[in-house]
Amino acid sequence: MYRGTPPGSASELQEPGALADPGSTIQVVLLEDGTEFAVVTYGSSSCPVVSTGSTVMSPNHVAIDAVDTYDDPRSEVCTDDLAPMTHVFDVPPDVDHRKPLTITILGQDRRLSWNDPSPGAPQK
């Protein structure tokens, strides 16, 4: 986990909505070698989303355990900005590349397509 966006991902990520639309504050990208993916969260730079682990639910579904420290009553005063935080995870070894990879984080699903370079979009 690190502040900022993954190197080389600027063209794949969308600027988050000015009103912090949940659809734009969590994005996913496949990293260059295809064995890892990044979840990029946008939120307060002083109270970021913190990933605490991941669970492979099925070969094409990974659930990310995360805490939004902005909502934690123990947090100090949080800045009202939208800074990126990147969380990197391994792609499950038995993933089926003919199907999208679903990533669930903070109750939201994003999908990564192996043939589509665009960031994961919200799923309804």
Question: What proportion of the residues is helical, as a percent range?
Answer: under 10%
- Mean pLDDT value: 85
Total number of helices: 0
CA radius of gyration: 14 Å
Tell me the β content.
35-45%
User: What is the approximate shape?
Assistant: globular
Stretches where pLDDT falls below 50 for ≥5 residues? none
Count of folded domains: 1
What structural category do the secondary elements indicate? mainly beta
The major sheet is characterized as: 5 strands, mixed
Give the CA-CA distance, first to last residue. Answer: 27 Å
Question: How many individual β-strands?
Answer: 9
Order of helices and strands: EEEEEEEEE
- Enumerate the strands of the largest sheet in spatial order, edge to edge or round the barrel: 4-5-7-8-9
Entry keywords:
124 residues; mainly beta; 5-stranded mixed sheet; 4-stranded antiparallel sheet; 0% helix; 43% strand; globular
Short structural description:
This protein has 124 residues and is mostly beta strands. The protein has no helices and nine strands. It is globular.
Written overview of the protein:
There is one protein chain. By secondary structure, the protein is mostly beta strands. The model has no long low-confidence stretch (mean pLDDT 85). The chain has strands at 2-3, 26-30, 36-43, 49-58, 61-68, 83-90, 101-105, 108-112, 121-122. Strand 8 (108-112) and strand 9 (121-122) form a beta hairpin. The strands form two sheets. Strands 4-5-7-8-9 form a five-stranded mixed sheet, with no helix packed on it. The protein has a four-stranded antiparallel sheet with strand order 1-6-3-2, with no helix packed on it. The chain has one domain (2-114). The two termini are 27 Å apart.
